[in-house]
Structure formats: structure tokens, C-alpha cells
Design brief:
14% of the residues lie in helices and 30% in strands. By secondary structure, the protein is α+β, with helices and mostly antiparallel strands.
Length: 185
Amino acid sequence: MLIAFNKPYGVLCQFTDHSTPPRPTLASFGLPPGVYAAGRLDFDSEGLLLLTDDGALAHRLTDPRHKQAKTYWVQVEGRPADAQLAALSKGVVLNDGPTLPAQARPIDPPSIWPREPPVRFRKTVPDGWIELVIYEGRNRQVRRMTAAVGLPTLRLVRIRVGGHALGELRPGQWRTLLDAKTALK
């Protein structure tokens, strides 16, 4: 089974949390029993999270050797300049080594749901949006990449993993992807 889930901002990508007070988890969304996240999406990130009950499929979706493209819409502080987009496209050096080349392009603000809580608006600091496609999945990689080129991330929404898109799912909604066996083609 393969499930597409629109993970809301402020939800952990696991079914339990032992912190005090406990934070919202995947257990709140009526997902089928026996599934688990194939990969992760940070607590403060939103969008497409794939869940499965198939270990081999989870491995195929998350193993860096398979280079599944992950597409994000990233709201950044500042207006992305050509040089910053070029640096992201070439790959940037992070504290754990250089990233693979990515695809980066400016986009108009996407027509998506409002975030709760909203991103802090500052009159004196412009913002912009980037579509960023990466082929790895390091811890907080997109945020670290944009920061490395002088564009701190304000909002991060994953819209695609490989051939699977978020589509019209609203935050907290999920759907079963019918043909999990062809998910990797």
C-alpha cells in the first residue's frame, strides 16, 4: 500500500511522541494501520509525505542511490537573484559536504492553503518563492541550501516525490495511491 498525505505544518512524521507536552503526530489523521512514513518531512515543513506498509518500496523511495526527485515550493526571505539560483543549481557546500546539483527557478506565489500560524510578514523585508528540485534527502537540506546562498527559508512545502504529486490534497487529507507496484517506474 502507498499513501499520499498532505502533512500540515507542526505535525511530526511519526505516530507517537514522548515529549512533554506531546506534539501532534500522524496518529491524528485516521491513516490505515501498519503504514509508516517513507522518508521524513520536518515538523515545520508541509506537504507531500508518502506512507507505506511495504519495506522494499520505502527503501526504493528513500535510498539516495535511487535519486528520487523531490520538488519543493520554498518561500524565502529576500528576492532570489540569478546568481543565487545558479548557486543552488550547481550545488552548494554545507557543513556535511557539497550537495548534488539541483534545479532552482523563481516562481510566482503559489495558490495554496494558508499556513497556521501564518509566516511572519515584515514590510521592510521582501520575500520570494523558488521551486527547488533536489535528489538527496539530508536533514533540513532545503533550508540549509537556501540559507547558504543568503535566502533563509520562511515556508517549505513539498509538492512531489518521484512520480507522486500532492495534487489537490488539503492539509491533513490523504489518499491511497492505487498502483503501488508501478510507483517506482
